[in-house]
Amino acid sequence: MKNIISILFVVLTAGIFSCSSDDDMTPKNEIEELTLLSEKQIPGTELTLKIYQYDQKLMVGYNRFEILLQKVGVDEDFTNATITFNPMMDMGTMVHACPKEDPVVDINFENAFAGAVNFVMPSGEMGSWTLGVYVEDDDTGDSGEIIIPITVVMPEESRVKSFSMGDNTYFVTMVEPNDPEVGANDFEITIHKRESMMSWPAVEMFQISMEPEMPDMGHGSPNNEDPAHTANGHYVGKVNFTMDGYWKINLELETGEQVEDLSFDVTF
Ligand SMILES: [Cu+2]
Fold first, then answer.
1. Same domain, 173 and 256
2. Residue 220 sits in a domain of what CATH number?
3. Nearby residues for ligand 1 (ion, Cβ within 5 Å)
4. In angstroms, what is the span from residue 268 Cα to ligand 1's centroid?
């Protein structure tokens, strides 16, 4: 019976694909294929904004965004602007921000501003998040901000770790692998310092060594590349998963005389 169903499925889907027009063959790099978070006019300016998120849900971790601007009445993307992200969590007795990368015109999509926000805790009873997007029109000098209420959820496996060293608290966020597979995967983390509730600068000073292991099977893997700092607090290397299952990626972060050990779980 199972076989018949799977054959039927193959025949049916083959039918669907053979009937489809060329329109369905558009490459997967259209910005509209991302998830539209909000579309608004920026108060005090002649600009409208569309902001897209990469994943269906915003998560505790590294979230990428793309922004398109247009002048009202002009059917063309506008790029002569400066955009600032203001992520804010209201916890009742206090508010705090989180690490972020302000949007800049990027090569991912033509005329789109690419940015990111590292949410450090989920929305819930503890508090609620908003994402402020402040836009300055560099032609006219006009500026304004929109505040978007958002919901941030916790992923099944944590992608943000924090630790204290000296007087400082640091936040380590796993950016890649996002979609792990057997073989060599890009490995990327960001490191930020909580300077104050509102200021979370990137940190470039760590030397990192990495050792992936399968704790249930008692083995690691060869041919890994320790993450090294590239730019803006991003550290990039390679992690080699020799099989699927539960992996623990052990990291040793070192600066000066101080060392901190932490790990990320990856199951696929
Ligand atoms: Cu909070």
1. yes
2. 2.60.40.10
3. 89, 91, 121, 127
4. 29
In this structure, what token pair is assigned to residue 147? 């505040």
DSSP 42: P
Residue 109's domain is classified under what CATH number? 2.60.40.1940
For residue 118, what are the CA distances in angstroms to 29, 142, 176, 214?
Answer: 24, 28, 13, 27
In this structure, which amino acid lies at residue 64?
R
Domain count, the chain: 2
Ligand 1: centre distance to CA 127 (Å):
6
- Predicted TM-score of the model (pTM): 0.87
How confident is the model over 118-146, as pLDDT tens digits?
A: 999 999 999 999 999 999 999 999 999 99
The alpha carbon of 45 and the centre of ligand 1 are apart by a number of angstroms equal to: 31
Whole-number mean pLDDT of the chain? 91
Cα of 125 from ligand 1 centre, angstroms: 10
Residues 164 and 139 in one domain: no
